């Protein structure tokens, strides 16, 4: 028996274009003093990154794929198929890399191997929607002689930031002073520069603030105004907005704000013509606001959510969905005087005529630092299998 453990050193979240590093350790767990202890042999081990695409048959009409039969592997087959047994289609994969051939482990002995691969920068982001799914995995395949292949899968998350694809290293870095006593791999230097550039691009895009004012009105008149200072955010940020009802002609009884994603299938891949768009609510604020002059809300964008993106099959957009409940009467008739005595009391009416209407405000949501997103990731950095 051999135990194989694969561990992602930095965490399970990466930006497309970054270098994924994984340490894979093979161990013979038997003690050397055990009576049944013996050496264990593995013929080979290989690793590969792949992205699986799965679509709902009720929502998405995909063209037939010739490679859909390759996910089944016979027990005596010796071909490394990393997506064996996986649902959907493998739409992206890196070249397989051989970790070793003919590994021999004595009782209690272990050996570690390092796997490094640059994530394709033109791939889709990780996404689990109502219609489609994009799932990234690192698969390690290993085999004993005359035995079936065992697969160790390490799922991870990929964020895509547009603009990194055109990044090129400055030419003056080649002549920059360096410390000859410190060794640093070129891949790590490039990966660090890529992360720094991503941080700069995100800060530049999300730090711009300008006042956006919107008049809220229905067919009967003005209800109030809405103010927001920016419409571009990173996942993990809070969407903050304020309302001013003091200048409205129509009293607002209640409002709600929902932070939603809009998942739409491209027209050529829709199962039915004109099929509805799928909406998902990530945060919601509701408040009664009769006789309230000003109010505000704060909606957090979950770090586990997917930033907006577009592929040839699906498009994901973010929006703020507003719902307002207004009075059909004037503000003065919303209260009833209970007594004409010296101590005047007021009580709310039992019934009131209301009108409702909604409004949608598109916003843009970008990725964030992958290290920050790793803290709330559902994926584990270490996975193991027994061979």
UniProtKB/TrEMBL annotation:
InterPro entries: Rgp1 (IPR014848). It comes from the Eukaryota. This is RGP1 protein. It comes from Anseranas semipalmata.
